Amino acid sequence: MSAMSSTEQPTGRRWRASLFIVTAVIALPILVIFASLLLPFSTAWQHLFETVLTDYVTNSLILMIGVGFGTLLLGVSAAWLTGMCDFPGRKILSWAFLLPMAMPAYIIAYTYTGILDFSGPIQNSLRGIFDWQYGDYYFPQVRSLSGAICMLSLVLYPYVYMLVRVAFIEQSTAVLEASRNLGKRPWETLFQVAIPMARPAIVAGVSLALMETLADYGTVAYFGVNAFTTGIFRTWYGLGDLTTAAQLCAFLMLFVFALILAERWSRQRLRFHHDSAQKKMARMQLKGWRAILALSIGILIVSLGFIIPAGQLALWAATRIQENLNANFLSLLFNSFALASLASLCCLIIAIFLAYTKRVFNSRIELGAVGVASLGYAVPGTVIAVGVLIPVAWLDNQIDFLSKAWFNYPTGLLLSGTIGILVFAYVIRFLSVALNTVDSGLTAIKPSIDESARSLGATPVRVLSRVHLPILRTSLLTALLLVFVEVLKELPTTLILRPFNFNTLAVRTYELASDERLIDAALPALAIVIIGLLPVLLITKSILNERSTNE
Amino acid sequence: MQRSTSLFHAIITTIAVSLLGIAPIESVFADEVNIYSARQESLIKPLLDRFTQKTGIEINMVTGKGDALLTRLKSEGMNSPADLLLTVDAGRLYRAQEAGVLQAVESLGLNNDIPSHLRSLDGQWYGLSVRARVLVYAKDRVQPSELSSYEALSDPTWKGRICIRSSSNIYNQSLVAGMIASQGMADTEIWLASFVSNFARPPAGGDRDQIKAVAAGQCDVAIVNSYYLGAMISSSDKTQQDAASKVALFWPNQKDRGTHINISGAGVTRAAKNIESAKQLISFLASNESQQWYADRNNEFPVRDTVQVSSTLDSWGPFKADTINVTELGRNNAEAIKAMDRAGWK
């Protein structure tokens, strides 16, 4: 460490230079997509304007608003119940609320369709019992826009829950107790104090959920909802027009960028710090019907988001366990686990670097750089994959060309078709998940802590490693977990960029499910869910431990 | 602190170990074929294993969506490791041909085995199995005599009785592309407008879902690929079998152009390093043995008549297939989508 301590200026310059290199590399694929805007706009645009574009935009906006409210409602309720209240079953619920995170949206969509569709068991038995025919009764259509909103909200609310819960728990006792001492009721404290103070966490959580929503393809495609992503793929696959598809995607990213900037700008002048060294507040004890209500709400959310779909998957998987559980399956398991570990660690390291740089320098340039680096999350995986594929393959071919010319030695494709390019793509796609989490954790630490440490002569790196990282332990683990689970579930990027003979659980699940072989798909799907649970449990343990040391 | 440090150590160790495990192993086999396959692994792997067993030629494969693989092939250029592109529709083969990533391979055997309307005329790609887009109707509510052709489904008598999946699906795009090729754009547009207004519900789900909806009474007729019905008939899942038993298959357009068909097929890439082995593989996939396997296992039709089909396929009887060159499906694909967009087919 002491080797790092030089004078302020060169460290700062080196730091900034590395920031720009990292951002540039990460932004490259995104820039490739933006560059498509410089190409001429084809006649496909006129067709889109005249026919389906309005549909795409409207549906995506409705989807966003719906999922925004859904995740906010579920996530904040769950966080308030387990973070601030106490009732029988709270401890179990506090980790059970995270379970739906392990459930990929497209899988929950397949499962609920299997259960609730017109030709599914529930409607079939209703018709059997009451001797109804089609049209004799009303039953909500699963495969619809509102169905998609429900599915996405159910699996995405844990992002809000996780971040907001940490924020609630870390909120200073003084503020909340002051609120109570001033005679405010618990609800008033929630809406007037706790929620406004947790705003960075809420915004980070909801924006993750929204970006994921905008990038979702599997669910909307299966439900036949014409959203913006289905439009991108239709333009690419159907019209065979990759340029127009990339241009559509560039507009999607501009929209997301505008949202990010608007949000940053709106809270520019606000401060959300608190003194995290203070003792945590005692929980509100819920008794009687309140406790029952709290527990019921919790059980309902967890059942809908996890127990019912996972149970259905387990039932399906059990019927084929003999045929499907073999060496091949174990290699899928291993590949998925290894890829997810590698990618999540890479993401975390880069996220710490970016978030901390932003904190130390905090000028517009750094903010912009960090903003650009986190754009990838809203971009459909396939588009990221193309954005990665084109420049990397180009670079590979240039290297091969030069090597042949200078050394008469063909290098072939060095990076394309390796695990490396895959991890690179994951980092671009999921960096924002890690970054948002680390960033919202860092924001909660008072700048005065940095100032006192720096005034004692510590370098920024030393402040980071000795002061911030230990305080941020929970946030870091959370970030690691989020990316891990994301990569485990990730499909389209893996599909395009993976090496020969390399399969993952998500790839296998998708292949079987897309062939409408849901029952065979259940085993790998269930495995994704179960592996996804391991880190969930790990993190919860650490969160709970932290609580008990503080209590 | 101690806890998190050891946790990080554990994670880093896991990653280091995993990296060793997943580091791509450079293939050491001189004889190999590298495939980019839009056909799913489980639907082709047993055949490829058989090929390796017979010839000693190793197969390496990446599966994915046709257009994504095509993009990968294009950007990798002449350094692409892929020798063979496998797709599950003619449109993508046509697109690959247009993009110049395939090369012509001459094979007298293949030209004899595969009818000319199921391959590119200059030998850039060859059809390897045939899938037919058929009508499936509810036995208790529809008489086969009421059915005739795709075109006739635009009649108002079918109002609210038709199920079909989204127009994003390639097989629907090909169906409309085929219609544009045979009837012209103007007639196709007129047909589309009435046909779409006959839908029982907004399109969603896959082909099996449409069959299930017919069985459950949500609609009376569905347009699906024949192998989905075959798979449901031979499914080990009771509910699928039950659904399949309530419906029957109808071959449309037998009195005129024939039932719309598409192909799965393969082409040797321009960057191929193992051209001879790749050719050998195509010939193997077109052989009697493989064609029989497609029919038995996937319920797809062989590309040639000499092959004995499975009992399921046999039970549907012989049919007249549209003999338009499948290249036309690829050529008209974009126009088909635009027409479907204009007609409001979701």
TrEMBL record, chain A:
Membrane association type: Multi-pass membrane protein
ABC transmembrane type-1 domain: residues covered: 57-261, 333-539
Keyword terms of this UniProt record: Cell membrane, Membrane, Transmembrane, Transmembrane helix, Transport
Principal cellular location given in the protein's record: membrane
The keyword Transmembrane helix appears for this protein: yes
Lineage: superkingdom: Bacteria
GO BP term, pick one: transmembrane transport
Record GO cellular component, one term: plasma membrane
CDD domains: TM_PBP2 (cd06261)
Protein location: Cell membrane
Sequence similarity: Belongs to the binding-protein-dependent transport system permease family.
PANTHER family named among the record's database cross-references: IRON UTILIZATION PROTEIN, MOLYBDENUM TRANSPORT SYSTEM PERMEASE PROTEIN MODB
Protein name: Iron ABC transporter permease
Organism expressing this protein natively: SAR92 clade bacterium
Lineage start: Bacteria, Pseudomonadati, Pseudomonadota, Gammaproteobacteria, Cellvibrionales
From TrEMBL, chain B:
Molecular function (Gene Ontology), one example: metal ion binding
Keywords annotated in UniProt: Iron, Metal-binding, Signal
Taxonomy, superkingdom: Bacteria
Entry's Gene Ontology cellular component terms: outer membrane-bounded periplasmic space
InterPro entries given in the database record: Ferric-bd
Pfam families tied to this protein: SBP_bac_6
Binding site for Fe cation: Y227, Y228
Family named by the database record: Belongs to the bacterial solute-binding protein 1 family.
PANTHER family to which the protein is assigned, alphabetical: IRON-UTILIZATION PERIPLASMIC PROTEIN, THIAMINE-BINDING PERIPLASMIC PROTEIN-RELATED
Protein name: Fe(3+) ABC transporter substrate-binding protein
